[in-house]
Every structure is written in C-alpha cells, then in structure tokens.
Amino acid sequence: MSSLERVALLDNLIDRVRQLEQRYAELASSAIMLHDHADATGYGMFSGWVVTGTALRDPGHRMVLDANVPELVLAPRGVIRSTDYTANTSGFKIDGGTAEFNTIVMREVRYTEHLRPVRSGTAYTGYAVVPLTTALVHSGLNGATISPGVYSIGPLNSGATYTYDYPAAARGLFVRLTAQWSDVNNVNVVLVRPYGRTNQDAGAIVRSQVANIRLDTVGFVALDSSGRAELVVNNASAIIILSVIGYVL
Questions:
Q1: Is the predicted pLDDT of residue 39 greater than 60, yes or no?
Q2: Torsion of CA 50, 92, 129, 197, to 10 degrees
Q3: What's the CA dihedral at 131, 133, 137, 141 to 10 degrees?
Q4: Which of 47, 92, 151, 221 has a Cα at 20 to 30 A from 58?
Q5: Strand locations in 105-157, DSSP E?
C-alpha cells in the first residue's frame, strides 16, 4: 500500500469516526437526523417516515408524533383503529369526529348536544330527565283564584306571566296541576299546553267534576325554544296550583 493510499485510508477513518460521534450525540439528545435519504424539506427518512429533532411524521403531514406535545395529530380523514375492528361488530375506530366502540366505561359523561340512540337504523334525539325532590312553585299559582284566559309560563327573566326557576334550555316540564271550582260544568277546564298550540296538545288537564273539591293531575308538557308553555283557564274562574316537579334538558 502506497503512502498516498495510507493517507486516504486514514482520512476516511477519521471522517467515519466524526460521523459516529455526531450520531452518538444526536441519539443522546433524542435528535435523530437521517440525512442519507432526505426528503424535499431536508429532514431524514426512516421507512417512509420523516424524522426531525423532536417529531416523527409521514411525508404528507397526515400524522405527527411530537415529543414536545403530548398528543397524536391526524390530518383530516385520518383514522385510528384496532386490528380487530369490524364495523358494528368488534374493535374500535376513530375517524375524525366520529368514533365507534363496543363497550365504554365512564364515570361521568358531559355533552353539549343531544343523545342520539339508534333503533332499527333510525337515529332518535334523547334528552336528560331532571327530577326535582322539591317542587318549583309560583306564588301567583299556589292557591290563587285565576280568571278565564291564556297565561304564559316560562323560566326566570323570560317575560312570561308566571316564571319558575328552571333552565331556559329545558325542552319540557313535568307538572302537577290542581284546580277547584264552585260548581260542576263540563266546560270548566284548566290545562297546560305547549306555547302557541291548541288544547288538543295539552299535557295536563283538569275538568270540573265535583264542586268545591280540589282535583289533581300530573302530566308532561313540551316547551318552545324559549322554554315557555301556556296555562289555559276555560269558562270559569278556578283556584289553581301549578307545580313543576321535573324537567327535560
């Protein structure tokens, strides 16, 4: 081997040692840069993945694993699924804002929209029922005599004739209705109906069947988008008690 070849070999060995030292330093700092197969951005490639100082991503930026951010970032239409996933059968799949799981065990569920149970392929809107151990009352509808007419019922600050302390977002009320008349007449009626609807849609109705005796009923009435319903007193004045015993959100 000539002296020139020996010098070239020594230079190659020194360069290789420097490369190894650089790779060791990169590994020690978790900054792996594979420059031998760089992509258009200059980052290294690792079996189809781009490796930066702190992140591992695919070339299309559809999936990013970043050591500095405790999350997995997927681009639109990105999907996470288990190997045993079969639609409506087994495993799990997370596809954007839609997720499918077999069984979920949770200690508390908070949601901002509606529950959507699916039965026979049809999605229904479900609501939460809130029973009240202490009924809500209004002083003006707690044994007062009310003249014939139509009166609005609503949440606080709704501008209704009679307001109760239930959420304005409520979709319906469970009510207990009591009425008393001084005489018996088939057209003496007190009812609670959805706001702006007809008596046919009433959820609670009391009719004068016995004079000077309080008659009671319970029922459910749907509310409008402002949380309102209507109390209708027909034909004759009546002593009325209207209590809210629960509501639906």
A1: no
A2: 80
A3: 80
A4: 92
A5: 118-119, 122-123, 129-136, 142-146, 149-155
CA distances from 106 to 36, 52, 109, 110, 247 (A): 48, 37, 7, 10, 25
Tokens 């609807």 correspond to 197
Confidence of residue 149 (pLDDT cuts 50, 70, 90): very high
Q: Using CA atoms, how far apart are residues 248 and 227, in angstroms rounded to an integer?
A: 11
CB 43 within 8 Å of CB 52: yes
pLDDT classification of 80: cutoffs 50, 70, 90: confident
- Are 185 and 236 in contact, with CB atoms under 8 Å apart? yes
Q: For the domain 129-248, what is the CATH code?
A: 2.60.120
- 118 forms bridges with which residues in the sheet? 123
CATH 2.60.120 residue ranges of the chain are 129-248
Q: Tell the residue number behind the tokens 């629960």, with chain if given.
A: 246
Residue 163, strand partner residues: 154
